[in-house]
């Protein structure tokens, strides 16, 4: 029996592991604590600032802003599932974690990632109704529908995350107790598992492909229709507003899906890429959306930006003050485009 309480690797699997992220940077890893701590604090504070703005301002209690706030809340949860253990790993080379802790972390990572995808679908539906059916928007996009979308998002996320965790829990980990990663990702755990893993690999890949392809088809179809309708709006101001709002959502979609796609390709195809590079891509995939999303929505969404400037500066921003006379004169068409 070894000192971790594991008997022979031939008849029982490891139940305690060591996370070793960025193994070739052993001497430099303590220097990464400060920048990654700053990144974590930035993710928490910027996302929380936008969420507080949406909650505090009554005129932002609309479906689009509520969905943005939910997306940013998921960003905070996703970063919290990864960063504390990652920072701990920078301090000590072999970062211990139990199998139960590893599976819990894995669940929250994939659950929050899938919630991101589902909330982006809900946002696409919201913009589709707002731009394609502006006169019926308030009748269609009700609080009841938002509740249904929230239940759908939770159910769909659980439906993918739970099977992955259950399947991983049933695997035998007899190769090594060292996970060459800073977090318990599905592929990183399969690399130290033994036995026939064909079904695990195929199920993981199938779930990923079905989820991503299904979502991208829906997002592509909806935003193609949205942009087509927006370009036909006669009012230049309303047309610019619709395209600008959709542009923010499309930036977020590209950030999330492209970072995830690049990570999957490297993990499954580029076998010659070093473990450090693979781990870096995983860090980008897991943390980049949480860092960029509040900046995209906080800076590109005029209503949110103006309230943040007013809250931080204690007065109306120059842009907001200059636009007040215009808003008093204007504009019936723009009122037909919620958000």
From TrEMBL:
Q: Indicate how the chain sits in the lipid bilayer.
A: Multi-pass membrane protein
UniProt keyword list: Cell membrane, G-protein coupled receptor, Membrane, Olfaction, Receptor, Sensory transduction, Transducer, Transmembrane, Transmembrane helix
List the molecular function annotations (GO) for this entry: G protein-coupled receptor activity; olfactory receptor activity
The UniProt transmembrane annotation reads 32-52, 64-87, 107-125, 145-166, 205-228, 249-267, 279-297
Query: Where is this chain primarily localised?
Result: membrane
Localization, per the record, is: Cell membrane
Pfam hit, one: 7tm_4
Ranges for domain G-protein coupled receptors family 1 profile come to: 46-297
Residue ranges, annotated region (Disordered): 315-339
List, alphabetically, the GO terms of the cellular component aspect. plasma membrane
- Annotated family: Belongs to the G-protein coupled receptor 1 family.
**Which PANTHER family does the record match to this protein?**
OLFACTORY RECEPTOR, OLFACTORY RECEPTOR 56B1-RELATED
Protein name stated in the entry: Olfactory receptor
Annotated organism of origin: Spermophilus dauricus (Daurian ground squirrel)
């Amino acid at each position: 029996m070894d000192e971790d309480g594991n008997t022979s690797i031939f008849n029982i699997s490891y139940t305690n592991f060591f996370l070793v992220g960025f193994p070739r940077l052993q001497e430099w890893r303590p220097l990464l604590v400060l920048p990654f701590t700053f990144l974590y604090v930035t993710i928490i504070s910027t996302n929380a600032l936008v969420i507080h703005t949406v909650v505090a301002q009554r005129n932002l209690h609309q479906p689009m802003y509520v969905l943005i706030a939910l997306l940013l809340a998921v960003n905070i949860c996703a970063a919290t599932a990864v960063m504390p253990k990652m920072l701990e790993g920078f301090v000590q080379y072999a970062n211990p974690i139990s199998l139960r802790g590893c599976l819990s972390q894995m669940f929250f990572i994939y659950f929050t990632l899938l919630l991101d995808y589902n909330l982006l679908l809900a946002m696409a539906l919201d913009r589709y109704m707002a731009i394609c059916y502006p006169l019926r928007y308030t009748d269609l996009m009700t609080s009841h529908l938002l509740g249904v979308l929230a239940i759908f998002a939770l159910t769909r996320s659980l439906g993918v995350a739970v099977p992955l965790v259950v399947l991983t829990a049933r695997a035998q980990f007899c190769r090594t107790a060292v996970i060459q990663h800073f977090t318990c990702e599905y592929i990183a755990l399969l690399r130290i598992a033994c036995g026939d893993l064909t079904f695990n690999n195929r199920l993981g890949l199938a779930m990923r492909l079905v989820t991503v392809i299904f979502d991208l088809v829906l997002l592509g179809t909806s935003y193609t229709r949205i942009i087509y309708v927006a370009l036909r709006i006669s009012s230049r101001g309303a047309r610019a507003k619709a395209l600008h709002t959709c542009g923010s959502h499309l930036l977020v979609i590209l950030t999330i899906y492209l970072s995830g796609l690049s990570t999957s390709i490297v993990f499954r195809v580029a076998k010659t890429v070093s473990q450090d590079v693979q781990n870096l891509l995983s860090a980008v995939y897991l943390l980049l959306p949480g860092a960029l999303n509040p900046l995209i929505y906080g800076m590109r969404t005029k209503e949110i930006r103006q309230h943040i400037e007013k809250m931080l500066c204690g007065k109306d921003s120059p842009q907001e003050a200059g636009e007040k006379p215009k808003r008093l004169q204007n504009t019936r068409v723009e009122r037909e485009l919620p958000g």
